[in-house]
Amino acid sequence: MLSVPHQSEKRYIQSNKFNLTAWFFMSSDNPNQPEQEPSLSSLANHQKTTNKFIQGTAQTFIQWMPLLASGGSLISFCLHQEWLQAALNFPIMIVTVIWAAYTESFLKRLREVYEEKARKDVDNLMTWQQKISEALTETIRWQLAGTDDKYLKLQEIPCQDFETEGELSLSFIPQLNEVFVPLELGDLLITGNRGNLLPIPPGFHRGNLNPSEGISIWDLLKNSKQIPSYRHLVLLAWGGYGKTTLLRHVTYIYTQKKQERGVPTLLPVLLRLRDWQEKIAQEHTIDLATFIEHYHIPDLSKKGLSLPPNWAKNHLERGKMLILLDGFDEVRSEWRNPVSNWIACQIKDYRDSYFIMTSRPAGYKEFPQENQHFTGKLYIKKFTLEQQKTFIQRWYLCQERYARGGKMTESIKTIADNRTANLVEQLLEREELADLANNPLMLNMIATLHRSYSGEKLPTRRTELYRDILQLQLWDRPRIKKIQMLLPLDKSQQVLQRLALLMVQENTPQLDYEALINTITPYLNEVDNSLHPRDFIKQIEQVSELLVKKDESHEFAHLSFQGYLAAAEIQRTQQEDLLLQHWQEPWWKETILLYGGQLRNPSPFIRRLININTPEVITLAYNCLKETPRQLDPDVQDQLQLQSISRTVQNARYQKLEEFLKNQQFKEADRETYRVMLETVGKEEEQWLDIKDIDNFPCDDLRIIDHLWVTYSHGKFGFSVQKKIYMDELGGTREYNETIWNEFGDRVGWTKGGGYIGLEDELYELRDTTPIGHLPKYTIHRISSWVSGLGLGFDIVVNLREKIIYFSLLSRAKTCDL
Asked: What range(s) does the NACHT domain occupy (predicted)?
């Protein structure tokens, strides 16, 4: 019976037709052998025999091919009796014999080596294929699990509600997206023609970055692919300008996947540095990916999140994460170096990912220069009137809607509109109140007071605003809600004041719960020893909302409250010397300013500051002076003292400028003029003056600056001199006129025949040939220096709003009667 081959045997036979044919011919020598299909074992044996025959034939051919060629030639020469050629060919034949002997061993060993290598390569290939298969299976499994979406859900939770720091006791807490007003960024950095970073002056248009419409964080992220510098940003602003709220808003938008078109898709990681400063300082070698997986995610959810291997690391290396680091200025001084080192290391390791850090300007100055890998530095701008109106409208609409069951009706809109209009009217009528409303935190408080004390006049000073908020939170609102407070207003505030002063002295924004209990226990015992500290803390946290619980720690609703209460305690206990001892430490600045603002007559305290006699303390004294009311109580003596100390402060502020001018150091005086103008409007040296700054520039300060220039130049230099030429003689206005501008530039020596005179030809000496009105010019000179850094011609400056700002300055000089 014939055996029927298995299907696999048929495939094997089909693929070996050559071997079957050879087998047939070899088997045909035996005619008596019965016909049958070859078995697999016989085919396998024959395969080995055939391969051995082929390999042997090839090896023999390689060995003896040269000999056949040379031997054939030798025989041919002999047959033709060409003995000389035969003799010459004989050595070649000998070499070929040697070659045959050599190649036999060589080829045999070569075959053994490559057979072994082939086996190893096949093993490695199979191992690699198995790993790839496992990795793909794992990736597909985690993609199906939706890990990224689950993470976004966790990160969304702490960013949903509009709980800005300092937002107190709102009747109803709106959602962040209901009331958030986009913040504008100023003094932007861009990349120059050599890859260096340069500031964008007001009015410069670069692609989608249009300062006239307001630069937002989304503009920067949208341009980050073309300009990698925008991937590493630091946002600077003073207290209450919405730094934290901005980061929470960005995080929330990303968790909702609602970022604008063109903005890169990223996973946001929001880290408040003061919450993690100790952990980072103690474990400064920990990698960011490990930190996210082992600390940040478990902090978002106690249940944790099941993650695929190297989840955070893979996202970071691919540039798919946005790391938001909030509040470097709130890191304790002893931990700032290790924290800054850690941040710098993470940016260096994950340069393709995105990093945005916030800080107050003074705090960022303590970020070591060698660690400043943030290649873009921006300032958050003050709220404009339109932003104020928008926020008030949204805020009131939420409050009135939620107070009436959450329904939106025409009557609710009418009530919200009327109350918004009333508050905006107060802002327009009272300049000091409008100044406070430039700060989002202050505007929150103003809106809260306006709704709570409907019909009453709002305070116009920061210290009065804090005082009224404390009155509202600790007494009036609980009484309206019929909540019995454990302590009367003055006693509760005294305990909080002592707590705040201790925290300022220790430079800590928060205390863990047990430390808080131990700290306030003796304070409470002095006012009411029957009161348990846990009950007091719970009521201040839940009813008054002046203390906020963060995990296992407590902190004041905003650092400004901590500063105000500490200042009030210093005033109560007459510890003014503390402020003079610590005036150089940044975290004392807020307390010093708010202390000056609480004094009925701050003149003696400001004089003590001035006596320290350093440029920094003079600036601090000037800022203290701005916290005081513009008119004191009707006490003639106090008013005279205030006027006297104001003149003293001003003289001290302009002492350096006067020294430069007196010594004919006009170039240095030019730059000092711009610096002190920035200081006057509350800006840092990296920032720019804008039209609003100029229009509100104090006339007294402008007169002092002009008087010094005119006096020490013998009437040749000064803003009043430039104003006379531009406005009185040439008929210039705030509007740009190219003909008048060119003529003015030629008159004062800034241009020649309409072309700008280069920096190397600038005149900073008082000569007979120096054009009248040539100085000061840094207001316009700074923009020309910036353009030179870009490698562009000065003609581009003609199209910039900086010229309009300069014309506004001359207009202000006319208004101030210079």
From this structure: 240-395
